[in-house]
Amino acid sequence: MADEKVFISRCETYDPDLLRRKIEQAFGAFGGAGRYAGRGTKVLLKPNMLSGEPPEKAITTHPAVVEAVARMFIDAGARVTIGDSPGIGRAAKVAEKTGIAEVARRLGIKVVDFDDSVLLKAPADFMFKKIEIARAVIEADVMINLPKFKSHGQMIMTAAVKNLFGCIVGPRKAQWHMAAGRDRDAFARLLLELSLLVAPRFSLIDGIIGMDGNGPSAGRPRPVNMILAGEDPLAVDRIAAAVAGLKEEDYPLMRTARAMPAFAERFGRIEVVGDALESVALHDFQLPPGQDLRFGPRTLRRLLKRAVAAGPLINRRKCKACGICAQHCPPEAISISGGRVLIDRSACISCFCCQEMCPQHAIDIRRGWLARLLIRRKGQ
Length: 380
Prior knowledge:
Elements lengths: L3 E7 L5 H13 L13 E6 L15 H13 L3 E6 L6 H8 L1 H8 L2 E4 L3 E5 L8 E5 H5 L2 E5 L1 E5 L3 E3 L1 H4 L6 H11 L3 H15 L3 E11 L7 E11 L2 H12 L7 H7 L2 H4 L5 E5 L23 H6 L1 H4 L2 E4 L9 H4 L6 E4 L2 E4 L9 H5 L5 E4 L2 H11 L1
Parallel strand pairs: 1-12, 2-3, 2-7, 3-4, 7-10, 8-10
Antiparallel strand pairs: 1-11, 5-6, 8-9, 10-11, 13-16, 14-15
Helix pairs in contact: 1-2, 2-4, 7-8, 8-10
């Protein structure tokens, strides 16, 4: 099995000078920025721009990280742009609220919306045969992936591989959630196949202030005090999961990747360079409440799906019935009636797009009744 390399560095602040040194060290561990881009190279930076929230909420990649990476490639002579397909709103508007637009203006670079797609045919052994990818991603010479270290209601955690879902243009995301259905492993396979098609040259995770609990938008911002970087997004995510204390069998992305021939050779030893994993490991990372209880044969779990599966729960005190959850529900299981949000549980696929997009953070995640009962008994 081939060895992969992942860089770790403790980093406790977004101080620009410190961050610039840390990021230069991260790229330097792989040969430097010049290994990926030179004069005239079109470099696309793909941060996490989920929604238009200020950076202190830890929902999006911090603008200081975006700026440090952008400056490094500008100094190398590259033509840099920043792009994403946010969950709510256009990239330009989200960039204003997250501080990324100010970075772009200061550096004289563009923020581009992923609003046009190119249909790519996948290899024969892929589950998903055709995937539409943002044209800006396809036309870039190099894409640099800049995710945020966060928990995630559906996928347990979002980092390098999950951030690439933003390479799919907004309206198509809902269709892909429906195609993958309620099965987390199927959605994980979509993300993994997408990562092979998009093939970012480098992934650097902003884990200085991350998020745990009810992520990816309503969780607890918390110091993680690190950056992680590497060329293989799956290897980077393996280390990110280790930092969070996740077991591979409980992490859909890793569980699915181990069963895919395309990733079998990627589960060799990872060489950690920079700081030791133990120096950044977390011992109190709060998992999202949407983590399904896994027990017994698959057939039994399927029969008891509604009793054990997690689902969205409306917090009536916070909810303003704005309708954004209904607009972003892939199976159209949410409606607004009499100023209240209603959820058709029989149609819900537990993708938690509603929870992810809610601007009031008024949607919690609640496990099924049987899962709650078993967990209470286990805790006794």
